[in-house]
């Protein structure tokens, strides 16, 4: 099979047939097939070297700034997270610096105090006085104003009021039914009574019934002062027998028998030849007796409470009146001491 003179290749310039490669080897003649001859190795073209330029002087570049541990990212950069390690190192460094400053300040203060103390000790040794106070000779002298003086003698104890009613020698206050029974309507334990009669008997036996008159006279009774009090149909007569000593009054109380005679006054008589309530007591040189019953003369039964309460009320009132007399005389003795004792002795001296 033949292809003519052109072979398998077309005329030059024919786009349908490949022509010889530019710069390559001539194609083999027509009709000859086989591997193409080996081509010698071709050197690779080297790129053209640019013309050498004269060296330029290096310009100084600014130092890069360390990235901030916290803050917004620079324009064009990604957001940054806080540098926790850097923050921790900074805080630790500040703490160490503060600690050293405190330690150094304390050491300086200690040295200063030690120096001051040493200076004071040295100065006190030179002056001869550790306190630095002037010697007693240099202290100012006291003024000429006299200081108050106090007596070295303890004041006597207050007198016992009962001592002033224990005997006639000390019991010098006026004595009468007015001083002993001053209230016309006394309230005795919230119960009001009316005083209806009073009497004074120099003959003690005439103020008593039964064997009480002999008892009073036998113990040296000086007089009997009586008063009657009435409340709600119940009447009470109290008789105060006066003796010279407390011992005589106590003996009359122990030996008492019979009763004090009731003092009716303008009202009806009571407790005459009939049963009544009786009491007997003594205080100081005074022995006092009560008789209580009904104003209508009726006998007081054993279960009575009204006459019993009235007798106790009047007896208690009489005791308080005797003690009021004792207290008044004791207070008066303190206000005006007797000569030779207390302030009176100083005035006489």
Helix and strand layout, with pairings?
Blueprint: H1 84-127, H2 177-180, E1 187-188, E2 191-192, E3 194-201, E4 208-209, H3 212-218, E5 223-231, E6 234-242, H4 246-254, E7 259-260, E8 277-283, E9 286-294, H5 306-335, H6 342-348
Antiparallel strand pairs: 1-2, 3-5, 4-7, 5-6, 6-9, 8-9
What do you see in this structure?
With 349 residues, this protein is α+β, with helices and mostly antiparallel strands. The chain is built from 6 helices and 9 strands. The protein has a 5-stranded antiparallel beta sheet with strand order 3-5-6-9-8. A two-stranded antiparallel ribbon has the order 1-2.
* Number of continuous helical runs: 6
From the N-terminal CA to the C-terminal CA, the straight-line distance is 190 Å
Q: In which range does the helix fraction lie?
A: 25-40%
> How would you write the strand order of the largest sheet?
3-5-6-9-8
Q: Which structural category fits the helices and strands?
A: alpha+beta
Biggest sheet statistics = 5 strands, antiparallel
Question: What is this entry, summarized?
Answer:
The chain is α+β, with helices and mostly antiparallel strands and 349 residues long. The chain contains six helices and nine strands, in the order H-H-E-E-E-E-H-E-E-H-E-E-E-H-H. Strands 3-5-6-9-8 form a five-stranded antiparallel β-sheet.
């Amino acid at each position: 099979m033949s292809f003519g003179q052109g072979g398998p290749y077309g005329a030059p310039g024919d786009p349908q047939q490949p022509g010889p490669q530019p710069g390559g080897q001539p194609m083999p003649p027509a009709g000859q097939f086989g591997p193409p001859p080996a081509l010698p190795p071709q050197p690779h073209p080297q790129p053209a070297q640019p013309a050498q330029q004269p060296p330029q002087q290096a310009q100084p570049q600014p130092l890069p700034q360390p990235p901030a541990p916290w803050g917004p990212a620079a324009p064009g950069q990604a957001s940054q997270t806080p540098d926790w390690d850097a923050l921790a190192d900074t805080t630790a460094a500040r703490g160490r610096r503060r600690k050293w400053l405190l330690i150094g300040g304390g050491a300086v203060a200690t040295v200063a105090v030690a120096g001051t103390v040493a200076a004071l000790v040295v100065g006190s040794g030179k002056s001869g006085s550790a306190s630095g106070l002037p010697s007693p000779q240099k202290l100012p002298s006291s003024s000429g104003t006299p200081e108050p003086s106090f007596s070295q003698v303890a004041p006597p104890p207050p007198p016992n009021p009962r001592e002033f009613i224990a005997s006639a020698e000390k019991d010098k206050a006026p004595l009468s039914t007015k001083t002993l029974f001053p209230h016309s309507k006394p309230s005795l334990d919230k119960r009001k009574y009316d005083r209806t009669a009073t009497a004074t008997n120099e003959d003690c036996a005439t103020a008593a019934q039964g064997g009480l008159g002999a008892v009073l006279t036998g113990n040296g009774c000086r007089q009997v002062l009586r008063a009657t009090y009435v409340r709600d149909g119940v009447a009470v007569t109290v008789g105060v027998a006066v003796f010279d000593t407390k011992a005589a009054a106590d003996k009359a109380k122990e030996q008492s028998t019979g009763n004090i005679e009731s003092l009716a006054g303008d009202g009806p008589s009571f407790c005459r030849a009939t049963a009544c309530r009786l009491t007997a007591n003594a205080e100081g040189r005074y022995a006092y007796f009560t008789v209580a019953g009904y104003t209508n003369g009726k006998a007081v039964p054993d279960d009575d409470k009204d006459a019993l309460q009235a007798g106790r009320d009047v007896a208690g009132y009489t005791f308080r009146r005797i003690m009021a007399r004792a207290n008044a005389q004791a207070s008066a003795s303190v206000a005006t001491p007797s000569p030779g004792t207390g302030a009176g002795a100083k005035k006489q001296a």
